[in-house]
Amino acid sequence: MNETTPAPPAPAPAPKKTPAPAGGETPRAVPAAETPLKQRLAELVQRQGVLAVLLAVILVASFVYPTFATLDNARGVTVQASFLAVVALGMTLVIITGGIDLSVGSVFALGGVLAAWASQWGFVTALLVPLVVCGAIGLLNGFLIARAGMAPFIVTLATLLAARGLLLALTDEGATTYLVPKDSAFAELGQGGVGGFGYPLLIALVLFGAGGLLLQRTSFGQSLFAVGGSSDAAALMGLPVARTKILVYTLSGLLAGLAGALNAARLSSGVTIVGVGMELDAISAVVIGGTLLVGGAGSISGTLWGVLLLAVIQNLINQIGSLNSSYQSVVSGGFLIVVVVAQRYLARSRRTT
Fold first, then answer.
1. How far apart are CA 62 and CA 60, in angstroms?
2. Angle between helix 123-146 and 104-118 (nearest 10)
3. What integer pLDDT is reported at residue 33 of this predicted model?
4. Nearest to 292 by CA among 98, 3, 151, 69
């Protein structure tokens, strides 16, 4: 009887070897938490670095100048900063989408003149007229940029000139100054307050709170980041890119007009020479606050700290006394250069991790 010899078991397959990288280096395992930690630190510095600088400047100034750390000085600084803050809030939304709005300074001045002119017909008219006209300018910016495909720089530069020209036409080349009626409700909006802090500051804080919620807690806010990151990718995702851009430029015009109206209420007149260069201050505050000029990243709180930092610098220059206000531009420009360089370094470090 023939017996069958069982076949030997098949040898186990040899484990695959991972080829060594060029140069004979042994691959190194990267800890899972290493990359996210670096990214989180870089993002934290980008978003909140300006807050640390602001606190340091306030601390040093409080020791050097006794009059700086007073309640009256704090009230003055915050009220002065509130108008720029409202304008910078709209600029933040625009820059996050990858755009720019150079018209806000002229729109701010135009809003003030329109509010002072309309204040003779009451509180509601004094607010409604500048909001409608300045919102229409923002809507025009958004339509030409989003629908006609024109460059934001060219469009908003044109409306900057147009708004300033309309302002001069309304005031007979600046010869006519419209006054806000004394003791009117509209004048109280700019000059009154609660607890010693003016209504313009309280309005700015409410708007920043609403802006933060809009940006972080709504689908519209997330659309802003997506459009700023890549308009083409956002369109492929089904996001309304054109409508989003139109809305942010309209909001920028509305906020600039509101800030101008509040300033007119505070000054009791529609001053024609205000707002010159304000668009540059707003852009500086936004960028210093950590918002990327290329779009796709930014925060409302960072813009608030950037505005306060510029206001504190101006106040310190006034405290010194021997320096004129032109030094604020020098210091602001220096801060802006440092922040832009830091942003490029942080963005490069995030890409390489």
1. 5
2. 150
3. 45
4. 98
